Amino acid sequence: MATAIIIGSGLGGIATALRLRHKGYQVTIFEQNDYAGGKLHYIEKDGYRFDLGPSLFTLPHLVDQLHDLFPDHCNSFSYIKKSVGCHYFWEDGTSFKAYSDQADFVSHASDTFAESKAVINNYLNKSKSRYNLTKSLFLEKSLHKWSTYFSINTIKAIINAPFLGLFNTLHKENEVFENPKLTQLFNRYATYNGSSPYQTPGIMSMIPHLEMGIGTYYPQNGMHRISQSLYELAVKVGIEFRFRESVTKINYKDNKATGIKTPISNYKADIIVSNMDIYPTYKKLLTDYPAPQKTLNQERSSSALIFYWGINRNFPNLDLHNILFSENYPEEFDHIFNKKSLFNDPTVYINITSKETKTDAPAGCENWFVMINAPGDYGQEWEAMIVEARKNIIAKINNCLHTDISNYISTEHVLDPRGIEKNTSSYRGALYGAASNDKFAAFLRHPNFNKGLKNLYHVGGSVHPGGGIPLCLLSAQITADLIPDVS
């Protein structure tokens, strides 16, 4: 039987393994940690359960597709659609519920921000149009194969290029709104790929359609259930997991990948797929092979500083997803990407899964995932920065919610860019690989195949099409489609 080795059991790795197993390969996944899922992990502390990684779930059909590959096995994965995508707060007392239904969103946004319904509707319709025009090119196929460009959908996208916002920044696209708060609300979608709205191209205005047009969802029993349901399926269909066995080298001969090396042994395989961040893949596993320096030297995406707080009271005015905005958004992004530091007035994201899964917190309590966008690890004085950031986050929460949150924090766990890099091998702790602060960024990402080594492929958030749950799953689809079926 044809064999495949996957390096890393992150979401992209497991998804690729399932697709290759469906093609007839015998698949083995090597993982440095003692668990599967990569960033989609969790902890339990003092009666609280916290999802450690991604907290937003869109395009759930991409997970369903993987379960549907094996209809004889029970699908233990389910989810609900949220009627409110996010709840937004500003220090002047303004708050806004972003309804998933477009008509409700437009009506509420018009009332809250004194903005024209026609302008808001037009923006959302344009977001949908841009998504539909470009998804087949940028999200569903390899940008590095000529065959991708010889299709009707690609030709349509090229013809419409002047209208896609490629030559504008996202912020410039969003200045169509008169109210700066609404501009800020749509600017935040740059963070979905770890970029700055003042640098990333306007085509990123298609991202709101994922959340508002297609919908925001919540997996029953939390985000960790996404990776675990796929891990359980993988085990059922015969995929082998070798935990606590780090890959130290990708073996090759005559420009053809032949297997891997670990501290235990050498393993041969017909196909090798690296789900490891592309930077350490070359720097640690292919040390004697010429690396694509232009690709590896790209600006890294933002990282995150996350406080996991057990809160010993309920906040009825909060939802699953909540944003407390900075009063100076441009300065915040300047600190993250240019100064490689944390701004003293950060935008704070609060995710509370106990709003949906009551057992994630003790009765009368809530589990708060409190995150601010952060630069990657460039050797900053993180301990001092964390202490200062904690004070600033508490001040922001207190100002927006009119409380003293420090009185209600009963337990705490902290994750910073250093820990993210250590746990997931993400270079500098970047959440999305390379940033998208350039209109050519999508084309500069590493392809899903290796141009120099035959039989070596790449998957995950650091390669095409990018980071985040949906893009990692699409990356697995693209990668698997490039790998031949078992003959």
Number of strands: 19
Using only CA atoms, what is the Rg?
22 Å
Give the % helix. 25-40%
Q: Quick one: biggest sheet?
A: 7 strands, mixed
What percent of residues are in strands? 15-25%
Strand order of the largest sheet: 7-6-15-16-17-14-18
Distance between the termini: 10 Å
Total of DSSP H or I helical runs spanning 4+ residues: 16
Summary, kept brief:
The chain has helices at 11-23, 61-68, 102-113, 117-139, 152-159, 170-174, 180-187, 207-214, 224-236, 278-285, 293-296, 329-339, 382-401, 417-424, 441-444, 469-482; strands spanning 3-7, 26-31, 42-45, 48-51, 79-81, 84-89, 95-99, 217-219, 240-243, 249-252, 257-261, 266-268, 271-274, 303-311, 321-324, 348-351, 366-374, 409-415, 456-458.
